Amino acid sequence: MTKPVVGYVAGFTAPEGKTMGHAGAIVSGSSGTAQGKQDALEAAGVKVGKTPSETAQLMRAILER
């Protein structure tokens, strides 16, 4: 990536095994969990906020550079 990317993954407080939305029918393994998605994004170099407000702070810090 040549530009900064900030992301946010919802669903950390959802009950384990709870299908969220239509895409839940096609995901499997840890890739379908909020933690699995966060790990994949971070491995790709994305800065991931743990809350919406932390995500906004990450964006602000990047934009102020």
TrEMBL record:
One of its GO terms (biological process) is tricarboxylic acid cycle. GO terms for cellular component: cytosol; succinate-CoA ligase complex (ADP-forming). InterPro entries: Cit_synth/succinyl-CoA_lig_AS, Succinyl-CoA_synth-like. GO terms for molecular function: succinate-CoA ligase (ADP-forming) activity; succinate-CoA ligase (GDP-forming) activity. Coiled coil: none annotated. This is Unannotated protein. It comes from freshwater metagenome.
